[in-house]
Sequence to fold (484 residues):
Amino acid sequence: MPSGDAGHWIFAGTAISTPAPSTKTPAAGDPAPADPHADRFQRRLAQSGYVSQPGAEAVFDLNSRYCEGAVFSGMWPNPQSPYIVTRLPEVPGQTANTNPPVTWRLREDEAVVLIGTTPPPTAYFSFDLTMVRGSLHSGPVLWPAVGDPVNNGTVRTAGKTPYGQPFALVITGHEATRAKVHEMLAASGLGDAINDATVPSAMFRLGLGEDADQFLLGIRTSAPEPGYEKALDDYRATPPLQVLRVRPKSTSADQTKPVYAPAPLPVPRLRVAGTGATELDLNPSLQTLRQRIIDAHPGFEARDVALERGFEQSYPGLQSNKVIDPPTPGIGALSNDADDPLSPSFSLPDGSFVVAYGTNHVATRQASYSSISLYADKEAAVAVAAKHHRDLRGSARDYLPDEPDADKLYAWTFSRAGDTGPTGPHVTELPSVGTDFCAQYGGDRPVDLSSMQAVARAYMQPETMTHPALSSLLLDRLLVFTPK
Fold:
């Protein structure tokens, strides 16, 4: 396994040494256990004349929040990766945040510091800084990524694996603040485990006033390795993370004004997508798979639904103000690590089913995590079902038993046809169109379950540690079947 800087190992899609799963079961909402590195860092802050305010980490479930009426739309969340979101208090005297406590402004010489333990072994995790402009309650919102995320291929930790290890993340746009925070973290024992997220003033508006941008830090955790399912559930329930907003102490009573002179950090270089390798040679096998799926269901009429690029990339979308306003996807909080092709809305009445098929992007080494997800209601955009690359393995052999490339493909059925439709291990039964979707969350907002969409996710190509080049992928496809 190749390594990065001394003591920091880079995940390249091969087997690695991982920590044993924990047997302890924390209760959801319990405070994170004390972290000795965080304790030492806070003592250093006080000795260095810095002020700090603690925040917290908690899951932000967009399905649930939509049904509760807290957000204007589910905005196509990944049901296999409920986001852990950083919640921060406001600085005394600042302009009130639009979406407290999950979005927050950042003083020009301030930093947000996350200290704790990385997630257990998963196909993909990341710490993804984004900017949110607009109200999550009423919408629409402009929601771009702020540079590349720190992921399980790039993270610096205090151990020889990305997983279950001490680390720190520093978010700032100020060079002197970053240098001072790095110095204090090194003195706290995390010198080789510091990761940076830069907020460049060339692209974003720092400060605590009305015109300043607001930011959101989300943690994605997708597809635990076998045997680590409970460990990941526990990590999400009680994230072993401590977060502080820190700033140099002012001699003035006004804490909203910077103490340090301007020292803006430049826009970081972005990781480059694509290796030149593609999935395109699999197209003949994919066409054969399509025909075999149609032939297997002679009592139904088949209709093709294509997925295409739906979400705009962050920096182009920021420049052209591509807001999320479902059914308009805009940027859609698209990670720089991801390609997320999107289908148009299609009708899926009771008695019908849809077969999603395509390449398994992990099997073709175009991604470290991939999935197919179904969503209901073109405006609510709530998640109904999803399957990831491990679930999809072997599913194409239902139709291509003798095809040598079958294990690089998949075919999964999402059905409302009951006993009249497909059955078997590669079929997911969907709720009927009359189901009260929000009842499971204790809410009563209406959701039109007859109107569906699909999103196909492909995260972090192992060789590049960023999203695959979209031109290298065979895009996932749908066949919608209705009774003849």
The chain has a mean pLDDT of 93. The CA atoms of residues 404 and 462 lie 24 Å apart.
